[in-house]
Write a structure and sequence with these properties.
Shape: globular
Largest sheet: 8 strands, mixed
Organism: Dyadobacter helix
Helix content: 25-40%
Number of strands: 19
Strand order of the largest sheet: 1-2-4-3-5-6-7-8
Protein name: Poly(3-hydroxybutyrate) depolymerase
Structural class: alpha/beta
Keywords: Hydrolase, Signal
GO molecular function: hydrolase activity
Number of helices: 14
Radius of gyration: 27 Å
């Protein structure tokens, strides 16, 4: 989610039972915040006096709130310390901060920029050294507790390798194909808890922790639908946690995602990312999610027809990016408070015709205005894209759908998950459209663009969709609508595109700025006992019999562990010149 300027940044966490409301805090702080941003010297003395008075009142009410709800007491002491520090009252700031450091919230409390002026105070240095020691002790404890999960993960992956070994011994392609369809690795699940903690190695030096939540009454004999949930605020993630932690990070991903997936009987996966390796930009970490799905399939029995991708904010933009760049593993996509734009290249909206997207927008979102979502929804209807946009109105901010648990939010997630679970992947659909400006993302289902030729003329049907977006809102105060307009999408590089169709053992492809392509074949698509015809741009490039490739089947299953999209032959073609 871009930058988070919401009130929880200074730990104002209120329950209805607390006499001090968030509205009261805002009324106390707003005059001071306005003055603090003023550059008028005539207001300096008045601002100082008013600021002193307001910070004292804020401290008073924070302490009152601590009395009203003992369970939130130390969070209110943290508020009091922040207010005292902003009042430049070192003694009070350190007094209340010390109470926080001596409490159970010490390692979760944020001693941020409000305390910068105290960094050289010896008392403050001692407090922060204590916090650092507590955090390191807690970290080491989590690492030690996670070690059994590393052994457990190796055990589960080893059981899948054993299953693969049994398949390798099957001599005929026909029997191998059927065995892959109907059999799965047999796993011994010695861990019976709700959460599992695992790691994905993206390269020799990159290890990403992720959290797996199992459904109620998990049954090892069943194949389960799976949802991968992508978090927001990727630009602010400079490091990875040592261990995925359900007790500390549920709020980070959004508790409603956990709750709804659990109630819906799904396996839910929650990966972490950094600002360098993530699902948005740069492209360095884009393989993280597909590789994660493949690994989870090697540890749990997943219904390949029902794998979904969802997220909030930057996570929603990530889900949208996989829809348009690499949708093959998924049946459907969803995003809350999405900015629908591919950040590493062109936003080729027609690629969305291959899958579906469930979009949820709020009316006071600074990330992408609700007006833009409405325009996009109309455009997707014109393009026959399976796109749903659900609006949540009532001055609802960017973070409302992940921070609130009221009845509105419950209904939003219920509708979102119902929509996803109704979708089933069909990797053999007879019509595909695919466009890319980087062949690293050149494949969808049975069609792949191997090489581009962007110097030749573009086909008349190869066009880009775009629209102007108005209604942008201020980040700090999203009630204010800005007088600005921008284009929804950007197209930094030339692209190539393919329209493909098959029927009755014949493939017809039309290309634009493409040099070579591949077609992946399955018995679900063609009859291998009959000749196959391939026509590209009206020119016949193949006409004859094809045979299954046993080693190709084994290699594909070893990588994908996919029991539905089982490809038994790949054909590659150079696009004929006209």
């Amino acid at each position: 989610m871009g930058v988070d300027y919401s009130l929880p940044k200074i730990h104002i966490r209120m329950k209805k039972s607390i006499c001090l409301s968030a509205v009261t805090i805002i009324k106390i702080l707003l005059p001071l915040l306005c003055l603090a941003q003023s550059k008028n010297p005539a207001l300096d003395s008045m601002g100082a006096n008013m600021g002193r008075q307001n910070w004292e009142r804020a401290i008073h009410w924070a302490l009152k709130a601590a009395e009203a709800d003992p369970s939130e007491k130390y969070w209110r002491y943290l508020n009091a310390a922040i207010f005292a520090s902003r009042d430049h009252n070192a003694d009070l700031a350190i007094k209340y901060a010390a109470l926080v450091v001596d409490s159970e919230i010490a390692t979760n409390a944020g001693f941020g920029s409000s305390f910068d002026w105290l960094r050289k105070d010896s008392r403050w240095i001692q407090l922060m050294d204590r916090v650092a020691q507590l955090k390191e002790k807690e970290r080491q404890k989590r690492i030690q507790e996670s070690l059994p999960f590393r052994d457990y993960q190796r055990e589960l992956l080893g059981q899948t390798e054993d299953h693969l070994g049994s398949l390798v011994n099957i001599p005929s392609v026909e029997e191998l194909y059927k065995a892959i369809q109907i059999t799965s690795p047999v796993h011994s699940y010695s861990h019976s808890g709700r959460f599992g903690y695992y790691w994905l190695t993206l390269s020799d030096s990159l290890e990403f922790p992720y959290l797996v939540q199992l459904p109620i009454n998990f049954d090892a004999r069943r194949r389960y639908p799976m949802v991968v949930v992508l978090h927001g605020a990727v630009s602010r993630q400079t490091t990875l946690p040592d261990v995925a932690d359900s007790t500390r990070h549920i709020a980070f991903f959004g508790r409603p995602f956990f709750d709804r997936a659990y109630q819906s009987g799904m396996i839910a996966v929650f990966p972490y990312s950094t600002n360098r390796y993530n699902w948005m930009m740069p492209d360095d970490g884009f393989d993280l999610v597909p590789d994660l799905v493949r690994q989870v399939k090697k540890m749990y029995s997943i219904d390949d027809q029902r794998v979904y991708l969802a997220g909030h904010s930057n996570g929603a933009t990530g889900a949208f990016s996989y829809l348009l760049k690499q949708p093959g593993l998924f049946a459907g996509f969803a995003g809350l408070n999405n900015r629908p734009q591919v950040r590493t290249g062109g936003t080729f909206l027609l690629n969305g015709t291959n899958r579906s997207f469930y979009n949820v927008s709020t009316d006071n979102d600074y990330y992408f205005p609700i007006e833009g979502h409405r325009t996009l929804t109309n455009l997707t209807k014109q393009l026959n894209i399976d796109w749903v946009n659900q609006e949540v109105v009532g001055h609802r901010s960017h973070s409302f759908l992940v921070n609130s648990q009221d009845s509105t939010v419950v209904k939003v997630y219920e509708a979102l998950f119902n929509n996803l679970l109704a979708k089933k992947r069909n990797p053999f659909q007879p019509r595909l459209y695919w466009e890319c400006d980087n062949v690293r993302h050149g494949r969808v289902d049975w069609l792949a663009i191997n090489e581009l030729d962007t110097l030749i003329k573009t086909a008349s049907w190869h066009t880009h969709q775009n629209f102007a977006v108005t209604g942008w809102r201020e980040v700090m105060n999203p009630e204010i609508i800005l007088d600005s307009t921008s284009q929804a999408f950007v197209f930094p590089r030339r692209s190539g595109a393919v329209k493909a169709y098959y029927s009755n053992n014949r493939f017809d492809l039309k290309t634009s700025r493409v040099k070579s392509v591949s077609i992946y074949l399955s018995p679900e698509m063609i009859d291998f006992k009959k000749p196959l015809a391939v026509v590209i741009n009206g020119i016949s490039v193949f006409n004859g019999n094809v045979s299954a490739d046993r080693e190709f089947v084994i290699d594909a299953y070893r990588q994908e562990t996919d029991h539905q999209a089982i490809w038994i032959k790949r054909l590659q073609f150079t696009v004929p010149k006209k």
